Amino acid sequence: MTSIFRTVMGADFERLHPQLQRRFSVGLTSGEACTGRGVMDRIWHGGRHVKPFLALGTTRNILVPREGRAIPFTIENVPYADTYGRETVSFVRTFQLPGGPRRFDAQMVLGPHGDRILDYLGTHQHLASDLHPSTDGKGGLVIRSGIHRFREGPVDVRVPSLIGGDAEVRESYDEESGRFRIRVRVVNRHFGPLFGYEGSFTATYREVRDGGVRPGLRPVREEARA
Q1: Per-residue model confidence as pLDDT tens digits over 197-209
Q2: What are the residues facing 56 on neighbouring strands?
Q3: Is the pLDDT of residue 53 over 70?
Q4: CA distances to 26, 113, 213 from 205, in Å
Q5: Does residue 209 sit in helix, strand or coil?
Q6: Angle at 2 between CA 30 and CA 113, to 5 degrees
Q7: Sequence-distant (≥ 6) Cβ neighbours of residue 119 within 8 angstroms
Q8: Beta bridge partners of 100
Q9: What is the reported pTM?
Q10: Residue 109: exposure state from Cβ atoms within 10 A (0-12, 13-18, ≥19)
Q11: Ordered DSSP codes for 178-202
Q12: Are 36 and 202 in contact (CB under 8 A)?
């Protein structure tokens, strides 16, 4: 077995900066978990028309409805086997915003054909996105979203572009500062920018067997459908 990112990216994975290779090798095979701690220089969102969608998303730890600068945050990447036996890596981000912390939860698994990553969003995994990682040619990682789906009970529908958002994540490693740099941008094809953040962080690693998966990190409900 190998990490989900290495499997999807193939030879391109070796073109990432060594620090990014380690971070995105977190998995059951490596036996490592990674915690990033840093500061978001800026968290932003679009105009007033997007606020109701962002506020609704926060009820299930999806997106962040508030703006801010110099916001402390953590990201927890912990591998585990989900209810269906699939290797899963948590991408749980906590932003220490004025008024209280806000979380943006995602759990990633390998797609059934090994050609994409499935990104289950929120506490109940009602939203799922296809993710396609690649290199930027300079050692950095670029992740772009593909199809989005909504699943609740028997409902399994593709999210139309009118209300969906295309996400782009760019992550790199700054040798001079010894920090990872990240920029996230979510845009609606019809209404423009919806949400995003950018900042930097340092990473620490631990063996998974030393701490396991802390309570509250896994979702309340897990979705079997790919």
Answers
A1: 999 999 999 999 8
A2: none
A3: no
A4: 9, 29, 14
A5: helix
A6: 145
A7: 91, 106, 107, 108, 128, 129, 130, 131, 145
A8: 97
A9: 0.93
A10: buried
A11: TEEEEEEEEEETTTEEEEEEEEEEE
A12: yes
